[in-house]
Design brief:
three-stranded antiparallel sheet; single chain; 24% strand; 3 strands; 68 residues
Length: 68
């Protein structure tokens, strides 16, 4: 029997989408559906965790830019 999963529609730049895909890759725990170049459906319950991981990636990238 099919199960419904609450999701959140996310529209973002392709570069951010690539980061989200990379975060999701090991366990496929965040993305419900990959719709197009700039749109994803993400599990609603996982959205806060995904935002935190994106912030960590952004802060690491900024630290690398600051050090160069």
């Amino acid at each position: 029997m099919p199960r419904a999963v609450k999701g959140v529609l996310i529209e973002c730049d392709p570069s951010i989408k690539a980061i989200i895909l990379k975060i999701d890759q090991p366990l496929h725990d965040y993305i419900v559906e990959d719709l197009d170049d700039q749109t994803l459906v993400v599990k609603e319950a996982k959205l806060p965790d995904l935002k935190q991981k994106l912030e960590e990636v952004a802060s690491r990238s900024q630290a690398l830019l600051d050090n160069s």
